[in-house]
Design brief:
16% strand, six-stranded parallel sheet
Length: 284
């Protein structure tokens, strides 16, 4: 309650007119809407698994949706789910975007594969580790870096046990959350996501902004983002994942070509400059 009223005081003193609430923050945003009825509340949904859940499992969200002025989703499936299940009249599909100029193109000097993804079950790091185990057998000079929040829970322990049980400690680094993602990507060559569920992952846009060759699972809008500038594989298929990674390892020219093309694609379609106008139109 203290935080709620502190936020209300700040909103009034600063003349805030729009609140942009992400995913689970909709509840706190709704409470503020009750205290500041003139504030416009925009809910931004990028939780890819939402489309597989019945509205009965989202009763609080359904109730709060009466108070949303607009909803922004990161892909068309989420937009349709919101239109069919929630009470908000204005629903927009707007992809995530990235500031491409914050990233310098990868120097590709290091034989590094990077995965930027919090250690959570839907991200399926075990699928990636199973694939990398085979990659390591054929290309032991390559390393894998796992970047993302580590909650230290059972899943985290399972990931770390897999690394140690398969003697991958020298090849796989679990780095936890890192504050400067552009720097981490600068020296990598390949970006990977092995998720079971996604909406439109920011990490994929960041890979593109850094000019990495990418291998991603065919979930959410990943295939749409990558287009012909990367490799998309089925989820839950470590064999396909390992083969796709090794394709880039063996073919440096293809790796560079796809990385450069993907960077251009992100700049043209998913950059801040291209999408900011649409965001402001929604706010207005």
């Amino acid at each position: 309650m203290n935080a709620l009223f502190r936020l209300r005081k700040w909103i009034l003193s600063e003349g805030i007119t729009v609140i942009h609430a992400h995913t689970t923050s909709y509840f706190f945003g709704t409470l503020i809407k009750w205290l500041c009825p003139k504030v416009q509340l925009v809910w931004h949904e990028h939780h890819g698994n939402r489309i597989h859940k019945h509205i009965c499992k989202n009763k609080a969200l359904w109730f709060c949706s009466f108070f949303f002025n607009a909803i922004i989703t990161v892909n068309e499936d989420l937009k349709q789910w919101c239109q069919q299940n929630l009470r908000t009249k204005k629903v927009y599909n707007l992809p995530n975007f990235v500031e491409v100029n914050d990233f310098s193109e990868s120097s590709k000097l290091e034989k590094v594969i990077v995965c930027v993804s919090n250690l959570r079950v839907p991200k399926n790091h075990l699928n990636l580790l199973s694939a990398f185990k085979e990659v390591h057998q054929h290309h032991p000079e390559w390393t894998l870096r796992l970047i993302g929040k580590d909650a230290g829970d059972a899943y985290s322990s399972e990931v770390k046990s897999f690394i140690s049980n398969n003697n991958l400690q020298q090849a796989v680094a679990v780095l936890g959350a890192q504050g400067v993602i552009p720097f981490q990507l600068k020296h990598a060559s390949i970006g990977v996501l092995s998720s079971d569920i996604e909406g439109l992952p920011m990490a994929l846009l960041e890979y593109g902004a850094a000019g990495l060759a990418v291998v991603v699972t065919n979930v959410g809008d990943c295939e749409h983002v990558v287009g012909e500038c990367g490799t998309v594989v089925p989820p839950h298929n470590s064999q396909a994942l390992s083969q796709a990674i090794m394709k880039y390892i063996k073919n440096e020219s293809l790796r560079k070509e796809h990385g450069a093309n993907f960077r251009k694609r992100i700049a043209n379609r998913f950059s801040l400059e291209n999408l900011l106008k649409q965001v402001l139109e929604i706010y207005n």
